[in-house]
Amino acid sequence: MSNLPNCPKCQSEYTYEDGAFLICPECAHEWSLESETEQDEEKKIVKDANGNVLNDGDSITVIKDLKVKGTSLVVKIGTKVKNIRLIDGDHDIDCKIDGFGAMKLKSEFVKKI
Asked: Residues in domain Protein YjdM C-terminal (predicted)?
């Protein structure tokens, strides 16, 4: 008996291999084992300065005065930001700060509330 995984869509145990793909005869779902492992690796964990895991929609506080590039404005320490979005890149938090507008922040300069 083969050790093929159950179908991720309907949990059927009657999956079979067809080349590089696995196929479920009950719901006709096709997938590859490689795509499952790639999806797990793509999930990047973003942590704040204290090591807490950040998620979309969290509220954060700035822990250091941050100069806004191209202006003379400064985001002061203790500024609260609500409803963040996590993105890929060096600046991994996308948010809107009252008085400044849309901005991207590095997770190392914030802490989760």
From this structure: 46-112
Residue ranges covered by each domain of the chain: 1-41, 59-112
Query: In the CATH hierarchy, which fold is given to the domain comprising 1-41?
Result: N-terminal domain of TfIIb (2.20.25)
Single pTM value for the model: 0.62
The contacts of residue 39 (CB under 8 Å, 6+ apart) are: none
The residue count of the chain comes to 113
The answer regarding whether domain 59-112 maps to CATH 2.30.30.40 reads yes
Each residue's pLDDT, cut to its tens digit, for the chain (113 residues) gives: 468 888 888 888 889 998 888 999 998 888 887 655 455 445 678 999 999 999 999 999 999 999 999 899 999 999 999 999 999 889 999 999 998 999 999 999 999 99
Measured between alpha carbons, how far is 59 from 107 in angstroms, rounded to an integer? 12
Contacts of 71 (CB under 8 A, 6+ apart): none
